[in-house]
Amino acid sequence: MHEGRGVPDWVKGLLKQARPPGYWLPSSLRVERFTTQRLAAPVAPPDPEPDAEPDAEPDTKSDVPIAFVGDTRLVPLEDVTKETLRRAASWAGAWLVRHQRSDGLFAYQYVPHVDAWSPTDSIVRQAGCAWSLVTLTRVSGERRFAAAALRAVNGILSTGLRRDGPGGLSYIAGPAGARRLGAVPLLLLALDEMDAPTPRLKPVADELTKTILSIQERSGAFGTSARGLEFEGSERYIAGQCALALAKRYRATNRRRLRDVCDKALIYYRDWWDGGNEDLSFLAWMIQACDAADAADANPQAVDFAFTMADWALQSQFGEDHPNPAWAGGYRGGPGIGTAAYTEGMVSALAIARRRGDADRARRYERSVRLAMRFLLQLQLEPPDLIFIPGEGHRGSVRHTLTSRLLRCDNAQHFLMAALRAAALLDDDATP
User: Fold this and answer.
1) pLDDT tens digit string along 396-430?
2) What is the model's pTM?
3) What is the 3-state secondary structure (H, E, C) of 122-136?
4) Could you write out the DSSP letters of every residue in 153-210?
5) Which helix (H) or strand (E) holds 225?
6) Which helix H or strand E contains 224, and what residues bound it?
């Protein structure tokens, strides 16, 4: 049952599922409502590896009962380990690869109640998925992820790259021709993280860097216009994405100008934040930019800005004392997959705190990340969850919220990135 629904609505919904259209159940039928808190036995044994052969026998079988609240599988905090998170990231990546289209892009959104894929798409989220597979390749070293990442990058360039802007300015366009600004920094991040980009891809990184530089205003803000060419994009997202891409690009090329424009952006957006613009979506990317700037070249201003945003974000996270145990670790405003994006920022704050020797913040941030990953693991479809999903091949996918089973490619992307980064920093010996 969804929390907050009354018994009449619940019974009506149940009857719609239990009877064919036009069929009336006898008046003698009695409906009783109950809630199961814990199963007496495991629903299914664990699988040995992502994308194992269907008939492969798992190496081990668990006798530990699975705790549920309603239809949500509860994940104990002690189960959040490096191994668990890396495995979960591989499953999410395997789901993306399984649903990669012939053009290199990914099936966008699966809608379970109609057992069909939505025709909608987003070139920004496609670029994010490509970046996540590049990152997964660096961590896992698996060729299947490397091949899929290269197909995705080439697919975006083949279908979306345009070089007809003023002065030959390059940009990324969506299927309907819309110039989507967010795809530029995300694709640049993917290119810079690739171990050995092909000769065809190397000049593209320089072109995309010029595009980001051309949208920065004198104040340091990132606008949505370059040489008179208008883009689509929200400052809540693109500000951090562009600053992050430039900071990473500076680290890869050592071009001083890139550091200077990144520093200018961080100074502007610190004042913008202090002016009453606190926002979880904004800090999800901007803390990552602060981390990259400080890692590339010690930057006290970036450190202070990151800590300010992270300390504010902690106020929006549900603790273990939440009345619904499934919600513990999630963030207000859902909770749902947005928690993964916010956790990407919090992992960067943890990295800064460790680098700077701030033990108190490192302890608080690690606790926050651990709780958030506990929540997020509940969104990933494990064998017990697949009973609710009619389609095939959805093991490892990530649903949108605890109450929505929409499966979208960027759900898997944000989950994958949060899991990989958390796994790299969490201490398995620490007390949960």
Assistant:
1) 999 999 988 999 999 999 999 999 999 999 987 76
2) 0.86
3) CHHHHHHHHHHHHHH
4) HHHHHHHHEE--SGGG--EEB-TT--BBTTHHHHHHHHHHH-SS--TTTHHHHHHHHH
5) strand 225-226
6) none
